[in-house]
Amino acid sequence: MPSWWGKSSSKEAKKKAGKESFIDSLHRKFKFSSESRVNGRSGGSQGHCNDTISEKGCQSPVESRSPSPSKNVSRCQSFAERTNAQPLPLPSLHPAHVGRTDSGISISTKPRSEKGSKPLLFLPLPMPGCIGSRSNPTELDGDMVTASVFSESSVDSDDPADSCHRSPQATDYDNGNRTAAGSPSSSMLKDQIFTVAPIKSREPKKSAISFSNNISPTSPKRRPLRSHVPNLQVPYHGAFCSAPDSSKSSPSRSPMRAFGNEQVVNTAFWAAKTYTDVTLVGSGHCSSPGSGHNSGHNSMGGDMSGQLFWQQSRGSPEYSPVPSPRMTSPGPGSRIHSGAVTPIHPRAGGTPNETQTSWADDGKQQSHRLPLPPVTISNASPFSHSNSAATSPSVPRSPGRAENPASPGSRWKKGKLLGRGTFGHVYVGFNSESGEMCAMKEVTLFSDDAKSKESAKQLMQEITLLSRLRHPNIVQYYGSESVGDRLYIYLEYVSGGSIYKLLQEYGQFGELAIRSYTQQILSGLAYLHAKNTVHRDIKGANILVDPNGRVKLADFGMAKHITGQSCPLSFKGSPYWMAPEVIKNSSGCNLAVDIWSLGCTVLEMATTKPPWSQYEGVAAMFKIGNSRELPAIPDHLLDDGKDFIRQCLQRNPLHRPTAAQLLEHPFVKYAAPLERPILGLEPSDPPSGITNGVKALGIGQARNFSNLDSDRLAIHSSRVSKTNNHTSEIHIPRNISCPVSPIGSPLLHSRSPPHLNGRMSPSPISSPRTTSGSSTPLTGGSGAIPFIHMKQSINLQEGFGGISKPMNGFYVNGPSYHDSCPDMFRGKQPGSHIFSELMPCENDVLGKQFVRPAHAEQYDGQSVLADRVSRQLLKDHVKMNLSLDLSPNSPLPSRTNGV
Ligand SMILES: Nc1ncnc2c1ncn2[C@@H]1O[C@H](COP(=O)(O)OP(=O)(O)OP(=O)(O)O)[C@@H](O)[C@H]1O
Questions:
Q1: Is 537 noted as a catalytic residue in this protein?
Q2: Residue 440 scores a pLDDT above 60
Q3: Using CA atoms, how far apart are residues 517 and 628, in angstroms rounded to an integer?
Q4: What radius of gyration, in Å, describes the C-alpha atoms of the chain?
Q5: 338 CA distance to ligand 1 middle (Å)
Q6: How far is the CA of 115 from the centre of ligand 1 (A)?
Q7: What does the entry list as the binding residues for ATP (predicted)?
């Protein structure tokens, strides 16, 4: 056991004292905020147009521990050294996957009454209703701004912790996380040690807290913000430390996870690696990119440890018993946040879930009662807290419990740990009554950390943004609720893991898979961008894949809704996937940054590593931001693929095509469609016991929610669970997983060129070594990879850093694929006769023109249908967006006003 573990909480007592006051103040603030919103909040933050949404510190989620082939891979093997990956089995064809997508928020009207505990923390849970009720379209932004302000302020914090000087402890810590399957995996490292709640007893504890579902077996022990047993000491996970614990899942715990514009290079590390040309404001700390098992990205934004190398040997950290020192690789967890702020209190993300830990240890994966999943608030307050004690680790986890038989389907039980993130842990949530699953992100809020408040706000922002998104290629947000000192966020469960994880386990993808995944990512981005929202952290670790090959964009912690005309470009993202303009801070917020990152992700899929991974973080950033070099593109990719990457990696953001435009690129346009596109289009019946939320609830949230999202995509169901004095209205949207995704089985029904049909392309997959991803050094100096200058319609817009203002949701500066079937896409693919038989383009709602194979239907009727459905969905989304944006009450500004 690490020495720091035994140190326990020397600061415990001191922190405890401040918790109460913190909670109270936070509570008051949220409450205040809530009221403000209800009354048409204005948020003084509107004046700010900072990056906002959320800034995460480094985190290192632990990937699923389920047995996987990856186990066969030596953890110490480097990507390059790894033996050939196992061929991916063909996805099985199943009925359309229907996934719940509705969002709901659970709320408990009854405050927690646990003796000795503080009043429940009223977290401002974003809700459809609340959102819809906003009269000012910029409110959302205001929230973000507010968050950003916090974030920035945090960056300037004098708190040593801010500087993220993650010490070697990080390593230990990381190791501990990874190695301790069930051990308290705190993800926070810091020079300060704190104690975490001891593992809860599995014995049922009688709780004074009543559950909405009538479950009241909570544990008296549960003392959210105060009772930490000094038997576990978890190093603070400061901004500087990357989440070393990242396991294979997230590749990128990145080298610079905590980088921020505002950050000051104040660490020795940075001092020694200062590149004058790189605008590294603030002390960026990088987490090791591939180290963490979280997402393994090197996202910047909160903490940046000095590990800026793409970790070549990130096997499956989680399996690795050996404490891994800090990772320097651009893994999943290396994100740089503009504010070196570690979102939630260090402990939040890293605090091991006692219960979970114990479960993991014993491998039983027992689950215990959890508060009701997505529940719609039935009262006027947009903020909710749950009085459910179900989340208490001490709650009996017996699946067969008979408590609350009245509302069987409303209980979610926390299952196995999927991973750790900056904000907390993610578990599988299972409703034993309905058989449904979800991903539960558990975040522990601490009051003893100055940044907790800020972190909470950031998290709220992410939730707020996510709650407004509904697309088959975006992880659906179901709802959230706070229970005591913990916040639970319910998300669509995507069991396949991230692209990063798949790459780690199976090696590089074949071209068909890449095409399919890329097409889906683009679909999600097109939708997102149509809402003037930029993800800012696109990379393999943040893209999840379900068993059917459907891709879902995840982790919107750094996403930002672009609203003003001018928005400073925050230094956020993951170094290796970061666009030049972000590094150079030369342009304003731009949707095009995602396109650049997409290009990097395509390379990542083709090589298992992001471009420039052979360089350490800072050096890579220097390359990206100051040289004209572009990463080498694997030869095994066909011309379309190479061209696609080049299009994305144009240094001038104005030259990059928009997501919508890229959907017309032959590389993705003919990607294999999903097998089951139609199933589920019609609203599915809500689960047993669940009634239509809108009708049943008749509350603002429900109404607004229905307005916010497409009815065609989801059914808003709710369940009213009345228990004792607690009434919860569950709003469980169900949606269909989507037809947009082309890949039901990338290997099947492909509409790609004949030579690719039905087969993976020449084996990229078989041997990760064969391709050189990062092994491909950057050859060439500037201009090694020629830019392709296509017809452009540059339309500089004032106030947006020179970036063109989106037109119909898309910036119109880049290559105009709108123009009738661009020649560049015609017959471009070698040997593809399909491309030469294109039907006349037809306009779609996006103003784009799609091209279809003349004999597509006879070629593959189902595929065509799927394609149409997918496009229709995209149109619907756009329409929906337009409708939403134009609504005076919409929290999102009209696109025409955006950017
Ligand atoms: N909806 C989901 N379905 C399945 N697994 C998920 C889901 N969301 C997250 N995970 C898993 O949980 C892990 C932690 O996710 P989380 O979003 O908290 O952190 P992260 O994305 O890895 O890091 P960060 O948020 O700091 O960038 C991820 O690595 C991912 O494997």
A1: yes
A2: yes
A3: 28
A4: 24
A5: 20
A6: 34
A7: 441
- Cβ-based burial of 469 (10 A; exposed 0-12, middle 13-18, buried ≥19): buried
Helices and strands: H and E segment counts in the chain = 20, 24
Burial of 86 (0-12, 13-18, 19+ CB in 10 A): middle
Residue pair 561/53 in contact by the 8 Å Cβ criterion: yes
Ligand 1, pocket-test mutation among 336, 426, 463, most atoms within 8 A of CB:
426
Rounded to whole angstroms, the Cα distance separating 678 from 664 reads 22
**Predicted complex ipTM:** 0.97
- Identify the bridge partners of residue 719 per DSSP, sorted by sequence position: 730
Expressed in angstroms, the distance from the first to the final Cα of the chain is 51
Among 245, 303, 449, 537, the one annotated catalytic: 537
Q: How deeply is 115 buried, as exposed, middle or buried, from its count of CB atoms within 10 A (0-12, 13-18, 19+)?
A: exposed
CA distance 292 to 237: 13
* % of the chain exceeding 70 in pLDDT: 27
CA distance 628 to 785: 9
Please give the angle made by the CA atoms of 184, 185 and 186, to the nearest 5 degrees: 110
Cβ contact 162:151 at 8 Å: no
470 contacts 363 by C-beta, under 8 angstroms: no
Contact 571, 585 (CB under 8 A): yes
User: What global pTM score does this model have?
Assistant: 0.46
Q: Identify the top-confidence range among 119-133, 826-840, 866-880.
A: 866-880
Tokens standing for residue 386: 């749950």
Instruction: Report residue 123 as tokens.
Output: 């977290």
Binding residues for ATP: 441
- 62, two tokens: 């632990």
- In contact, 617 and 270? CB cutoff 8 Å: no
Q: Which two tokens stand for residue 477?
A: 């947000």
